[in-house]
Specification:
This protein has twelve helices and 14 strands. α6 links the parallel β4 and β5. The structure holds pyridoxal-5'-phosphate. Keywords: Pyridoxal phosphate.
Length: 360
């Protein structure tokens, strides 16, 4: 059996060593020493000024919308994980979908201005599969129309643009450190901002809005994360380079082996490099996708229609609308198995099987 993904697990003794410290200190959660150390180390690795380690990527999005005091319409992408849209609704804002670019699969910046109304307050866009949005165009639009920008960077850990972290763009970028992501802390999330005042506000929101003994400054939530999660994050951080290199090797091998597949790959941002968080292919037709997927299933090779269906037509709490590019891509996109433990032999096997299914 080959799953579509498998979480990276470090040598158990390295995790155990950090647990020993937790037992000594008996400090289990609430901004403990390991959580603080994780924040410092991630800042060093990604060369960021400010960030917060939080419960998960979804709470990070909720906190971002809250901290920026957004209440009206938020322009967003229909081609993302459900949390990007559901969070907007959860925060009592209205998602306004703008279609995606057919090559990059990120929100089509050229279509954003047409969707702006007098109620628009923000843009919330996803760096799909880690591929950066057109951040420069979005920045210009946001300036012109006085909009806030939040990026869902759940896929984009370690991605840079012109040599600087993609997490530096927008008012706030969120990230998920969930077990299935490229880099993880079992459950976890990040909030990144360049604005120190906003960071201070987010830190209070993370801790119930408490601002001192017996005082409250903001409407808050429990967005904290534990020492146990931080410990996993700290150990895994040491393996980040290894993880990326292995995924790169496997991805390049898929590229080579699947040259004759009737499929294309998303176009990566010209000023950025792939972090190999996923291996998506866009097949010629949904028919071919289903044929390949069903036959791989029979061989116990599991792929994932990620993202499918397009959020603009999938959510029972929103009116369904047509988004021609997103609808079309969602029907034809498939993510192939990609994880640290996958072998070149397995990639070879999966690829040969796929070509055989296609040509049958
Ligand atoms: C995983 C993911 C999230 C949610 O993150 P959690 O840590 O699981 O809450 C949000 N957006 C995108 C694009 C994701 O892939």
């Amino acid at each position: 059996m080959i799953p579509v993904t498998k979480p990276f697990l470090p040598p158990q003794n390295e995790y155990q060593q950090l647990l020993d410290g937790i037992w000594k200190r008996q400090w289990l959660t609430n901004m403990g020493p390991l959580a603080s150390r994780l924040e410092m180390e991630i800042k060093d690795v990604l060369r960021l000024e400010h960030l917060l380690f939080v419960t998960n990527g979804t709470v990070a999005l909720q906190m971002a919308i809250k901290a920026l005091d957004i209440k009206g319409e938020i322009i967003t992408t229909p081609f993302s994980f459900v949390a990007t849209t559901s969070t907007i609704v959860w925060e009592n804002c209205k998602p306004i979908f703008v279609d995606i670019d057919k090559d990059t699969l990120c929100i089509d910046a050229k279509k954003i201005e047409d969707a702006i109304t007098d109620k628009t307050e923000a843009i919330l866009a996803t760096h799909v599969y880690g591929n950066p949005c057109d951040v420069f165009a979005i920045e210009a639009i946001a300036k012109k129309h006085d909009l806030k920008v939040i990026y869902d960077g759940a896929h984009a850990f370690g991605v840079e643009i012109e040599g600087k972290s993609i997490f530096e763009f927008g008012d706030i970028t969120t990230c998920s450190l969930h077990a299935t992501k490229l880099y993880h802390s079992i459950e976890g999330g990040l909030l990144v901002t360049k604005n120190a005042k906003l960071l201070a506000k987010l830190a209070k929101i993370r801790n119930f809005g408490i601002s001192g003994f017996d005082t409250f400054s903001d409407l808050g939530i429990n967005g904290k994360n534990s020492e146990f999660h931080a410990a996993m994050g700290l150990v895994n951080l040491k393996y980040l380079k290894d993880i990326k290199n292995k995924r790169k090797l496997l991805s390049n091998y898929y590229d080579e082996k699947l040259k004759n597949l009737k499929a294309i790959r998303p176009t990566w941002h010209k000023k950025s490099e792939n972090n190999f968080a996923y291996y998506p292919i866009i097949l010629e037709s949904e028919e071919l996708l289903l044929k390949i997927k069903e036959n791989l299933d029979l061989n116990e090779i599991f792929t994932r229609r990620y993202f499918y269906p397009s959020l603009s037509s999938a959510l029972p709490y929103l009116d369904k609308i047509d988004m021609s590019v997103s609808d079309d891509i969602a029907m034809r996109v498939l993510c192939l198995p990609l994880f640290y433990d996958l072998t070149l032999e397995e990639v070879d096997y999966i690829s040969r099987l796929m070509l055989r299914i296609q040509n049958n």
